[in-house]
Specification:
Blueprint: H1 3-44, H2 47-61, H3 65-82, H4 87-100, H5 104-111, H6 116-134, H7 144-158, H8 164-171, H9 176-191, H10 204-211, H11 217-225, H12 238-253, H13 260-268, H14 272-279, H15 283-298, H16 300-312, H17 315-323
Helix pairs in contact: 7-10, 9-16, 13-15, 15-16
Length: 410
């Protein structure tokens, strides 16, 4: 190559470099800004969050090259979508909201199904199962105002049959803990009698007066029709199922929300394997389990209420609870604002965009679906023995002179 050609190439290289310099600087600047933002985000994490991030990195490094590349591509798509029309983000939010409406055992099954094709099959089956479950009967909710009036009437009817110790215990409680304790006294007294399937010692006239306090039309309809031939109700103990199911919902709905700092402290005090177990759950289940630990430890009265509530759960419902997680009847509510907790780099995706629950035709909020619906997970109704001859639907199998309530259920 001649000297003239060399000089020409050198001159061209200088000119091209000068032209590209702003672009190169801009590219480096954008990369540096991106790294700086990530660094600042990590600096703002708590020690617990940074430890979790380190374990996530170790888990990522353990993946195969193909799996790592798949994760990078997914992250890139979500990052691009977040700066665009957010179709993918909206789809994930919709899926997240739907998952919140499922039973714990259904969420667990989805989480354990990694194969996309298999997961679609599980989703279709869950949709069909829930559709069949909800079509013939929708579990109505007894509102707190009706519940209070029912329980006050019930206590007035049975108070003379309580022991001094039981009356003292009830007088030391108020609200939901008092209602649950009263129901336990009635249930235990009934089980101490001849009929082990009985749920209370209320006489038919007493029960009729208690149920007259209900104001929700759907509850009245179920109570009026339950036990009729061909009606998918709960049989003679319909009122008990409705009361226990509604109490479970109100217990869940009234659970206090610990602040993030308290949750972080409790999580940090758990063993690493327990932390990983909780953090592997969906955001809903993560908050539910962690809040349960904090709330029960801080409020012994509530913990006792939850234990009493567990004794009220009918036998035919317990298989359903065993297939899900441990915890109070009715499960837990959504995390505040949804998504990951703030101390782990949240806030994550927003919470339920449908307002935190649907409404029945009486306007009572019943959540995505009140706890303890009328069907077991296999889709079958709980078995109910037929009422005795001449016994009105909804009445317990007791005469007009019930036995005293035993005092061993404190």
């Amino acid at each position: 190559m001649s000297r003239a050609s060399v000089r020409w190439w050198l001159l061209a290289s200088v000119l091209i470099g000068a032209a590209l310099a702003p672009l190169l600087v801009q590219g480096n600047s954008a990369l540096e800004q991106y790294r700086r933002q990530n660094y600042e985000s990590m600096q703002n994490l708590s020690e617990l969050g940074r430890n979790r991030l380190t374990r996530n990195q170790e888990a990522f490094n353990a993946l195969s090259p193909a799996e790592q590349q798949s994760m990078r591509e997914l992250h890139g798509l979500l990052d691009l979508d977040a700066r665009g029309n957010k179709v993918l983000t909206s789809t994930l939010d919709t899926y997240h909201d739907w998952v919140r409406t499922l039973e714990p055992y259904q969420r667990e099954e989805l989480q354990q199904t990694a194969d996309p094709v298999r997961r679609m099959e599980v989703i279709r089956r869950i949709l069909e199962e829930n559709r069949e479950r909800d079509m013939p009967f929708r579990f109505p909710l007894i509102g707190m105002e009706s519940m209070q009036q029912m329980m006050e009437t019930m206590e007035a009817k049975v108070r003379s049959r309580l022991s001094d110790e039981q009356r003292t215990t009830l007088d030391s409680l108020e609200g939901l803990p008092r209602y649950v304790k009263l129901m336990r006294y009635l249930r235990d007294a009934a089980r101490a009698g001849i009929d082990q399937r009985a749920v209370s010692t209320l006489t038919p006239p007493e029960l009729e007066e208690v149920l007259a306090q209900v104001s929700e039309s759907r509850v009245k309809e179920v109570l009026a029709r339950s036990g009729q031939e061909g009606h998918p109700g709960f049989g003679r103990n319909a009122w008990y199922y409705l009361v226990v199911g509604s109490l479970g919902y109100h217990i869940r709905d009234s659970r206090p929300q610990p602040n993030p700092e308290l949750l972080e402290q409790r999580l940090a005090g758990l063993p690493v394997d327990k932390q990983d177990e909780l953090l592997s759950l969906s955001p809903v289940d993560f908050y539910d389990e962690l809040e349960l630990l904090v709330v029960e430890e801080a409020t012994p009265i509530r913990q006792q209420m939850v234990e009493d509530m567990q004794t009220l759960v009918p036998e035919e419902w317990r298989d359903r609870l065993k297939r899900g997680r441990s915890g109070p009847p009715g499960g837990g509510g959504p995390p505040p604002n949804g998504g990951r907790p703030p101390f782990l780099g949240g806030p994550g995706r927003p919470g339920d965009r449908n307002g935190g629950g649907r409404f029945d035709r009486d306007g009572e909020r019943d959540g995505d679906r009140p706890p303890f619906g009328g069907r077991r997970p296999d889709g079958q109704r709980p078995p109910e023995p037929p009422p005795a001859a001449g016994e009105p639907p909804g009445a317990p199998p007791r005469g007009d002179n019930p036995p005293p309530i035993p005092a061993d259920a404190n």
